[in-house]
Amino acid sequence: MSTFLYCIKQGFKNFAQKPLFTIASVATASLSIFLFCAFLAIVTNLTGMIHKAENSVGITVFFAEDAEEAEKTTIRQKIIDHGGVDAVRYISADEAWESFKKEYFGDAEEELSKAFEDDNPLAKSDSLEVFPASVDVQEELVAYIRSLPGVREVNYLSEFVASMKKVNRAVYVVSLVITGVLFAVTVFLISNTISVAAAFRRRENEIMRMIGATDLMIRAPFVVEGTLIGILGTVIPLIAVRLIYHRAETYLAESLQASSGFLKDIVVLIPLSEIFPQMALAGLLMGVGTGMVVSFITIGRHLRV
Amino acid sequence: MIRLIHANKTYTKGVRAVKDLSLKISDGEFVFIAGRSGSGKSTVIKLLTGEVKPTDGLVEVNGTVMNKIKRRELPQYRRHLGVVFQDFRLLNDRNVFENVAFAQRVIGVPAEKIKENVAKILQLTGLSAKYRCMPEELSGGEQQRVAIARALVNRPDIILADEPTGNLDEKNTEDIMRLLTRINEMGTTVVVITHNRNLLTTMGKRVIHMEKGSIVGDYPTGLRGGTEL
Question: Which of B71, B102, B110 is facing A305, going by the closest CB pair?
């Protein structure tokens, strides 16, 4: 058996030698990584949704009730000429009514159509849908449009987006704090487990030193143990997060299928195949990296020439 | 060759364990270092293994100046030493073969070579029949022989034995000394720390007598009957 394999074997032996300590370390690491991945998923998805909301939902401009067609054309042109605009689309009163019916009445649309056959309730609601070139110019563009004569009302999703941003920031801060605390506990527990392992192997380490083993050789079994804790503490929560995310993805898709409106387009989770590799990489770096580094440093404190 | 020239060792708490010690041990010599507790014998061994560095003076082992040795150089240096302790320091969860093989594993000897080397050493130390026994199944003398086998398996130039017979009865003490003599006859320098007066007078080997960190006597052919320790 080569020295390398010997060190690996001793690492596994350490790992199995004190099950309670090992379980505590793996469990805390798992919880820490699980929450880290869960928060990562929430923050990433919320950011994506906010971005989608900002970009896909435009600014709706309603004309004054007495506005003439020529005035509406002028308003449209002025908005285009102002710059910072990707597209401007005119929505006639009929289009607005059709869209409203589909959005809010769904299956009852036909009966409703009959009831309002010759009377469009949104007759005065023709509008312009303006898509800003960038979210950053939105506020300024809205202010400009509001200042134009012949404009009755301007709607956009400023409050919605702002609330979502607030929620996202709060989730981000909370996740950072909780993950940080759990991370510290994980570091402490792994360090403690390695210290216990060092106490178990004190005699062996002394003999190794006297025989001429290098520090690296003495450290190796402990680093193997720390890495094993890291691997298990990452793989378990990654499997859990994958299963839960898949369920959430399916559940959301099913729930929103029945509903309509812009939420259906915006509240869509990033596909698992897209988010999971990033999550797994981040989790592995955090879990395995922590296991390796903490065990390496901890055992260094127990090494004496 | 082991050379100490005006070597001093003062520990951090101000204890002067070794005072102005000058000593030369030639290659292939068998030397006893004797003295009462606190005479500085064990510190000499620690100076030779590199566990502690001299405060001043010179400590040189086979050309390696221990005053200047770097931490990263110690493992390589120690591979040329074999250290034996009074309490054997065996790994109780491994059998005789594994205890001896352990010394070879940590320095990266290939598995096939380990089998061959361990078998030879176990034969030399008279442990061939017990290679599967666990330490607890062995007598004190046998355990010490396992410890000597482990110290020998990497073919060291020097064996440093710190009270190797301290926990043994007369019969086992004789066996161990016979083994160490045989190892010495094969060319290995042997330095034994002891306060067993009988060994110092009957073995006919050089005895260095230490008191309070200094050498107070050097007897090339052993201690004479009337000499006090």
Answer: B71
Q: What's the rounded Cα separation, in Å, for the pair A43 and A282?
A: 14
Of A203, A206, A211, the CB nearest to B106: A211
Domain with CATH 3.30.70.3040 in chain A: 58-156
Question: Which among B104, B63, B56, B60 is positioned nearest to B82, based on CA atoms?
Answer: B104
pTM of this prediction? 0.70
CB pair distance less than 8 Å for A212 and B89: no
Per-residue pLDDT, B67: 93
List the domains of chain B with CATH numbers: 1-80+157-229 (3.40.50.300), 89-155 (no CATH)
- CA-to-CA distance for A77 and A54, rounded, in angstroms? 23
What is the per-residue pLDDT across B145-184, written as a single tens digit (0 to 9) for each?
999 999 999 999 999 999 999 888 888 899 999 999 999 9
Q: What is the pLDDT of residue A209?
A: 87
Question: What single DSSP character describes residue A271?
Answer: P
What are the residue ranges of helices labelled H in chain A?
A: 3-17, 19-56, 69-82, 93-105, 109-115, 138-147, 158-200, 202-211, 215-258, 262-266, 272-302
Q: pLDDT at residue A116 above 50?
A: yes
Per CATH, the number for A58-156 is 3.30.70.3040
Report yes or no for ipTM above 0.85. Answer: no
Residue numbers of chain B with a pLDDT score lower than 70: 226-227, 229
